[in-house]
Design brief:
The complex is a heterodimer of chains A (279) and B (606). Chain A has a single domain (2-8, 23-259), classed as Rossmann fold (3-Layer(aba) Sandwich), CATH 3.40.50.300. Chain A is built from 9 helices and 10 strands. Chain A has helices at 71-79, 100-106, 122-132, 137-150, 166-178, 196-211, 223-229, 247-251, 256-264; strands spanning 33-42, 45-55, 60-64, 86-91, 94-95, 107-110, 184-188, 215-220, 232-237, 240-246. In chain A, the strands form 2 sheets. Chain A has a 6-stranded mixed β-sheet, sandwiched between helices. A 4-stranded antiparallel β-sheet of chain A has the order 2-1-4-5, with helices on one face. With 606 residues, chain B is mostly helical. Chain B has helices at 9-27, 30-56, 61-78, 98-110, 113-122, 124-129, 134-165, 169-188, 190-198, 202-211, 216-222, 225-255, 277-291, 293-314, 325-336, 340-344, 348-353, 357-388, 393-418, 440-457, 459-467, 471-508, 524-536, 538-554, 563-566, 569-597, 600-603. Classes of the chains: A alpha/beta (279), B mainly alpha (606). Chains A and B meet through α2 and α3 of A and α13, α17, α18 and α22 of B.
Chain lengths: 279, 606
């Protein structure tokens, strides 16, 4: 098992059985997501290098970092879509790689750039996935109706997903993630290529979800958006966590953008050269 | 100051050629390099073979060149749109008319291995011209060039036509029917030719192969000086026309939106059945069969091949194959469905994120495949057997039918999860609605694997029929059910345990695994050998080995193209055994050699 190979560098990490409620489900006292020493290399390139993250239950967590920092890879390993080279991930105390089935029952995921069942309409996708999850047909039909209506996808009743625009694909992906009422939403770049009106809709839905006790993780490189939505932030750069915690602690006195540029040690370019561009 | 001028035609063409060569250089890694080397080696063998034909059997040169032409016509259809290294979409924003871009793109298209190999083959024309003196050589050289350009242009125009006009189920099915008929003609086209040969139409066929664009060179060489020049000039005119047509098609293609081949004009979709598990997965899969033009085309190919092959043999009054039409259709349909998971791309993540959905997905795909292929195959089998009047065939048809259906349903899902060939995600596919973006040669070898494996699952039933005609039916039903159930079980178990690896294979391509044997790690001569073995080992094993063996056992007196049956009786069995041994040896070499060379000791040197 990859877990046993992690050098824990002097720290002891306890794995007590998570507290359960009356139905045997873990309670909210466990963090919504905890990753312990996640590592992944693609060839010689270390995409993710020893990432420890804790997302408290009930938080709205923003994972930020420059392009290629390892956000998508981290999230894919955290939800069980990519096997880590080392390390482990727990969702509400359930180990994603040991108890995959139970962990997957707790989360709704919107991965970046993955295909959907392309030759179904939006309604068919939701119906199909709901029934495949074993939800009662009546519940599936009711939720599908509501989701399509709220996400304004109900007008595209005859359009196959393959013909959807990028924004529509994000929205149907979000509907898929919400359909089974998960306790944790993991959304990779949910606002990329989404128009402002749809983005406002999605934000409202996510805020409601969090306000009702759900936990949300979004990845983004739009700092203003993360500042606006999230109460916790993790900053990743070059496959490592460079800062993590409540938003106020991470950004300090300035804006998140300033803190971010300082943290990842970036130099803002674009001022030199290109003289010929001014005709 | 904005730069408004595009380079002149020659410079533009030079840039395209450099770009094409750069693309080729960058893609010469791993498996693609193997495929290229193998393809070039095979092509060179065929090219030298063509020159040999011009020297030794000059009468057959026109028909040999016609085969090259058919390769240019059907190659792009088989492999889903042809290898467009430079796609016209890349240049749609260049400020130049399509008439300017098209010749440059064409120049780029020539900077590849296939035209070079074909030019070598066309050098058979000056070789043939030698018989007619120095003038013949000269005309032959000119004709070699014009013929090459014509062939490549025809190929491009066909690709462009498919890309533009295959937008509906009917056109996709039409392409499939043409393809299936072409494969059938390639494998059994000798039958009608032989039948016509009996009625002295040799002269007619000689004219035909000279009228085809591939035969114009031969016609020019054989003609008088003025006529030869006229033919060459006409050929040049045809090239100009093709170029104009191609430029027009490109211009339309670039400005027309095509997304992954979705048939138009749908009504409100039928609601899903209110069920769960395999039934709901089958319902989704059935919709995919109906809404995906690639699948429709592949099915049409399978069924038209199955129907045309026996019909061709009827020209010689051979009815033996007619009862087996449905069975051929099953095997062909299985071969074209072998990359089920690869065709859906990364949509697999949804199945993986739903606890326990892997089993439902595999079983659903099996059910849907059986529903799509089964009824038609059963009807074809019953009608074929009834119409042909071959009563001896009933136990064979009834026994093998369930065995093959079950075997097919099992093998396709098993191979789909064990030998997945990654393609482009459906929503990211480009202008050609019939292309999945997968590595065509890998998909082809997967199809061959199915063509071997599915009939193999019916061997117990065949054995039982030889013992007792009706025992075969029970055996067939039993092995069919066992295969569908068992292979499906292995498939979903594997999907449960290795689904993520499949997903990441589709997302990021194959991961380097030192302990897994891959052809890419072999020395190049062995790589070529392995790929060629995979490609042609079936030839001695099945048509020249197992089939004549079966025909000898059941006593069918039809020699066909089975070498063994044309030999004196003493040599027939040794030949059959030699052929089977040869085929097995080639498969053994192709499968075992990579494993041996990739043993841990040699893997460390990577």
């Amino acid at each position: 098992m990859p877990e046993s190979t992690i050098p824990l560098s002097g720290r002891t990490i306890h794995h007590p059985l998570p507290p359960r409620d009356s139905q045997g489900m873990p309670t909210h006292r466990e963090p919504a997501l905890r990753t312990i020493g996640l590592r992944k290399a693609f060839g010689d390139h270390k995409a993710v290098d020893d990432i420890h993250l804790t997302v408290p239950a009930g938080s709205f967590y923003g994972l930020v970092g420059p392009n290629g920092a390892g956000k998508t890879t981290t999230l894919a390993m955290a939800v069980g879509l990519l096997r880590p080279d080392a390390g482990s991930a727990e969702i509400f105390g359930v180990d994603v790689w040991r108890d995959t089935v139970r962990a997957k029952g707790l989360i709704g995921v919107l991965p970046d750039g993955n295909a959907m069942p392309e030759r179904l309409t939006g309604r068919e996708v939701l119906t199909y996935l709901g029934l495949l999850r074993g939800m009662p047909p009546a519940v599936v039909a009711e939720r599908t109706d509501e989701l399509l209506q709220v996400l304004e996808l109900d007008s595209a009743e005859r359009t196959l997903v393959i013909e959807y625009s990028t924004g529509m694909r994000k929205k149907i992906g979000l509907a898929v993630a919400l359909l089974h009422a998960p306790r944790l939403l993991v959304l990779d770049e949910p606002f990329e290529a989404v128009d402002p009106v749809s983005a406002a809709t999605i934000k409202t839905i996510l805020r409601r979800f969090a306000a009702n006790g759900g936990s949300v993780i979004i990845s983004s490189h739009v700092m203003a958006l993360v500042e606006q939505l999230c109460d916790h932030v993790g900053v990743i750069s070059d496959g490592r966590v460079v800062a993590a915690g409540p938003l106020a602690d991470v950004r300090g006195a300035g804006t998140l953008e300033d803190a971010f540029v300082g943290l990842v040690g970036a130099r803002t370019g674009g001022t030199e050269g290109l003289a010929w561009l001014t005709s | 100051m904005a730069h408004l001028l595009t380079p002149g035609p020659t410079a533009l063409a030079q840039h395209m050629i450099r770009m094409r060569l750069a693309v080729m250089r960058n893609s010469l890694r791993g498996d693609q390099a193997t495929n290229l080397y193998t393809g070039v080696s095979l092509g060179l063998i065929l090219a030298f073979g063509t020159i040999a034909v011009a020297v030794l059997w000059p009468a057959y040169l026109p028909i040999t060149l016609a085969v090259w032409l058919s390769g240019w016509i059907f190659g792009p259809i088989f492999i889903g749109g042809g290898n467009e290294a430079l796609r016209p979409e890349y240049f749609s924003m260049l400020p130049a008319r399509p008439g300017r871009i098209a010749p440059a793109l064409l120049a780029g298209a020539f900077a590849g291995p296939a035209p070079a190999v074909n030019l070598l083959a066309l050098l058979s024309l000056p070789v043939y011209g030698w018989r007619f003196g120095p003038a013949g050589v000269l005309i032959g050289l000119a004709a070699a060039l014009t013929t090459l350009v014509t062939m490549v242009m025809i190929s491009r125009v066909i690709v462009a036509l498919i890309g533009l006009f295959v937008r509906s189920r009917a056109t996709a099915a039409a392409v499939g029917i043409v393809t299936g008929t072409a494969i059938a003609l390639c494998s059994n086209g000798w039958a009608p030719v032989a039948a016509m040969g009996a009625t002295d139409t040799a002269a007619w066929s000689e004219i035909l192969v000279r009228v085809l664009p591939s035969g114009w060179g031969v016609a020019a060489i054989e003609a008088s000086w003025p006529l030869a020049l006229a033919i060459l000039a006409a050929n040049a005119g045809v090239i100009v026309l093709l170029l104009a047509a191609w430029a027009g098609l490109l211009a339309r293609r670039v400005v027309s939106a095509a997304r992954g081949g979705v048939p138009p004009r749908r009504g409100t979709p039928r609601p899903f059945p209110g069920a769960g598990g395999a039934r709901i997965a089958a319902a989704r899969e059935l919709r995919a069969w109906w809404r995906d033009l690639v699948r429709i085309q592949l099915l049409a190919t399978a069924f038209s091949y199955a129907i045309v092959t026996p019909l061709l043999l009827l020209a010689l009054d051979i009815w033996v194959m007619v009862p087996f039409t449905g069975l051929i259709a099953i095997v062909m349909a299985a071969a074209s469905s072998a990359n089920l998971y690869g065709a859906d791309g990364t949509a697999l993540w949804l199945t993986l994120m739903i606890p326990g959905a892997e089993r439902a997905d595999v079983r659903g795909r099996q059910r849907a495949w059986l529903l799509v292929v089964g009824p038609a195959a059963v009807i074809l089998s019953l009608i074929g057997t009834l119409v042909s009047g071959q009563t001896w065939a009933w136990p064979w048809v009834l026994g093998l039918l369930p065995a093959l259906l079950g075997g097919g349903a099992g093998i396709i899902v098993l191979l789909a999860v064990t030998s997945l060939v990654p393609g482009t995600d459906p929503h990211k596919r480009g202008g050609n609605p019939l292309s999945t973006g997968a590595d065509e040669s890998a998909e082809t070898s997967l199809a061959w694997l199915v063509l071997l494996a599915v009939p193999a699952t019916a061997l117990p039933a065949a054995g039982a029929i030889l013992l007792h005609p009706w025992a075969g039916i029970a055996t067939g039903v039993l092995t069919g059910a066992l295969c569908a159930w068992g292979f499906g079980r292995i498939a979903y178990r594997r999907l449960e345990n290795h689904g993520i690896d499949l997903l990441n294979l589709m997302k990021h391509g194959p991961a380097p695994q030192p302990d897994k044997p891959t052809t890419a790690d072999l020395p190049i001569p062995h790589r070529i050998g392995v790929t060629i073995s995979y490609l042609i080992a079936w030839l001695p094993l099945f048509p020249q080995g197992v089939v004549p063996m079966v025909m000898k056992i059941i006593g069918i007196d039809d020699r066909g193209w089975f070498l063994a049956l044309h030999l004196p009786p003493v040599w027939q069995w040794p030949t059959v055994i030699f052929m089977i041994a040869l085929g097995l040896l080639m498969y053994g070499y192709a499968i075992l050699l990579p494993m041996r060379l990739n043993s841990p000791s040699s893997a460390e040197t990577r």
